[in-house]
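Support request, priority: normal
Reporter: lab tech (M.K.)
Component: structure prediction queue

Hi team, I submitted a job for Putative Transcriptional regulator, effector-binding domain/component from Candidatus Filomicrobium marinum yesterday, and the status page still shows it as pending. I've pasted the exact input below so you can check whether something in the sequence is tripping the parser. The sequence length should be 159 residues. Please let me know if I need to resubmit or if it's stuck on your end.
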Amino acid sequence: MSYVIEVVTLEAQPALSVRFRARPEDLGRKFLELLPQVLDVTESQNGEMAGAPFARYLDVAGPELEVEVGLPLTTTLEGNGQVLSKPLPGGPAVMTWHIGHYEELGKAHAALAEWVSTNQREVAGGPWEIYFSDPSDDDDPKGWRTQVVLPLIPEIKAT
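Reply from support: The job had stalled in the queue. We restarted it manually and it finished. Here are the results:
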């Protein structure tokens, strides 16, 4: 699959999320286990989702990954301890779309990393994936759509 890389400027996005550590093979199960907690806190405050669920990768070194799974919101809500009120960052970023099975998402991440290296840019934190398809509604992964976002450090303009 060929990836189209887009340079974007994001606004900070209010969000609720749960942070956890898990082995890569357990991510899907943890996502399904923890996302309902985020949804419960959102609904208890009459919050509105501003988009599809996401997973943000904070630390990928070692056998376990540190991940936040959450929901973007239209306004800032309060967390409850385990569910954190923490925005997705704004600023420059590169993004691409992955169409297909989640097991192949590494290719999209690699395409973004290659773009960053080729264009001599620096990342400003962990990437996140936004899941626009629900496998429980569509059991054919060929059509699953996931947006992958990698935040960048702003370029310093020469004066």
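The domain at 6-151 is CATH 3.20.80.10 (Multidrug-efflux Transporter 1 Regulator Bmrr; Chain A). The first helix runs from residue 27 to 44. Let us know if anything else looks off. Ticket resolved.
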